[in-house]
């Protein structure tokens, strides 16, 4: 492909992305098919199963609902909402401060590696979509592109309201976690759908709570999850990377 042809192809791709309705962009970003590796993590669930804390459909559903409210809503979803606003305003100082908060709240080596791996994969996906320029890529690499930071960048480009952005993020997280439960408990597909139904009923209030959080109230305090994650790093047999 010639240089001119490549430039035209990039322009067409960017134009197509810009003309894609916000709802379709959110569905795209929430899809487990997004090539960022979310399917390879259980975020402590596999360790909880190994310790007998989760052992069937009911206990798995309860575990994930608790995780949605106690860790996602109060922490990552809250900071994600702030990051979306900062990206839209191009407030680099704010983005750097929020990025540092994300780093400080990864309480185990594997949780930090997950955030960094998925963030870099998200950055690469955005680059391949011609969605960001070289200066933005350099900026993200300077901060270390964590997953919340990069997913917020992608969400900020959709033009969708913050509430819908966080709902898309939460549903994508729920789908990945339900699939992790199906594989590791193990459970059947119908059990997975019932779990997803239960989680979906909790997403809207979790998002509402996340959007009400401030810098002073946002938190990442889940000591049992941190302990399980640290134990998972040396677990004898495992399917997932966290």
The topology string of helices and strands comes to: HHHHHHHHHHH
- Identify the quaternary structure here: single chain
| Record field, number of beta strands | 0
- CATH topology description: Urease accessory protein UreF
Would you write up a description of this structure?
There is one protein chain. The protein is mainly alpha-helical. The protein is 72% helix and 0% strand. It has one domain: Urease accessory protein UreF, CATH 1.10.4190.10. The longest helix has 33 residues, at 57-89. The protein is globular. It starts with a helix and ends in a 10-residue tail after the last helix. Mean pLDDT is 91; it is low at 1-16.
In short:
By secondary structure, this protein is mainly alpha-helical. It has a single domain (22-30, 43-232), classed as Orthogonal Bundle (Urease accessory protein UreF), CATH 1.10.4190.
């Amino acid at each position: 492909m010639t240089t001119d042809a490549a430039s035209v192809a990039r322009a067409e791709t960017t134009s197509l992305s810009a003309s894609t309705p916000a709802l379709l962009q959110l569905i795209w970003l929430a899809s487990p098919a997004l090539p960022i590796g979310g399917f390879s993590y259980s975020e402590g669930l596999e360790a909880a199963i190994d310790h007998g804390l989760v052992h069937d459909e009911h206990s798995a559903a309860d575990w994930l609902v608790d995780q949605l409210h106690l860790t996602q809503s109060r922490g990552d979803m809250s900071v994600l909402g702030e990051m979306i606003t900062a990206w839209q305003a191009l407030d680099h100082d704010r983005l750097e401060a929020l990025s540092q908060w994300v780093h400080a709240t990864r309480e185990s080596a594997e949780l930090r590696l997950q955030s960094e791996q998925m963030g870099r994969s998200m950055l690469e996906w955005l680059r391949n979509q011609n969605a960001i320029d070289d200066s933005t890529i350099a900026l993200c690499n300077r901060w270390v592109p964590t997953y919340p930071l990069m997913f917020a960048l992608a969400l900020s480009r959709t033009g969708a309201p913050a509430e819908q952005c966080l709902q898309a993020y939460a549903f994508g997280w729920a789908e990945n976690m339900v699939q992790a439960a199906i594989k590791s408990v193990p459970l059947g597909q119908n059990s997975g759908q019932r779990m997803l139904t239960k989680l979906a009923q909790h997403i809207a209030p979790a998002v509402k709570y996340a959007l009400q959080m401030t810098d002073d109230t946002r938190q990442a305090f889940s000591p049992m999850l941190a302990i399980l994650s640290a134990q998972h790093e040396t677990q004898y047999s495992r399917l997932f990377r966290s």
